[in-house]
């Protein structure tokens, strides 16, 4: 049985159809990169995976059961904008999930439990290359370091699924390369199943074991929201050629103009 199954999955907001007829199976430890024109529903799909949005129709299954209806420790997420707490240092940011889990109202624990959370946070920060910045606050960190901190936050609960919403879009090319190496290493070491949204098709081909293209194959210029995007390409990485790459790029440009 596949780890993740999409069965005729739809997402609509009133008369606006965002996603339609999504059908796919994803095995554990796959790295799925998702590309598509702006506004085609990529982030909406990630929200469905996280559990903060519900499907309008169809099913989204995890291990054969409906995916949990709210975020839990099975899924971690990293956004493009650094989702870190400015008033906490690096260790405090990574400890926060454990503190909130243990004490929902105070958000703070003490004694042996606190020492264990701190030790785990330090180990995770070292894992993402921030062992030298344990007491630094977010405003003291570069963009790449803040994103490493966000990854540490997402992975501290050891999730099975890592969701990445354009995590490197705001980074310089050199830093992006370093982040690519980090994510690929963590994916392999922690046996993660990854879904990553990107606007960079080349990045999608490079990082993923599988690339999905979300695109509208039905367009009405007079009613651009009448139809939703679906998975129009599902490519195993390594079998793409330049013709396929150019075809996808051209189609996404056409869709972006049509719905822009």
UniProtKB/TrEMBL annotation:
Residues 4-241 form the ABC transporter domain. PROSITE patterns: ABC_TRANSPORTER_1, ABC_TRANSPORTER_2. InterPro entries: AAA+_ATPase, ABC_transporter-like_ATP-bd, ABC_transporter-like_CS, ABC_transporter_ATP-bind, P-loop_NTPase. Keywords: ATP-binding, Nucleotide-binding, Transport. The keyword Nucleotide-binding applies. Pfam families: ABC_tran (PF00005). Belongs to the ABC transporter superfamily. This is NitT/TauT family transport system ATP-binding protein.
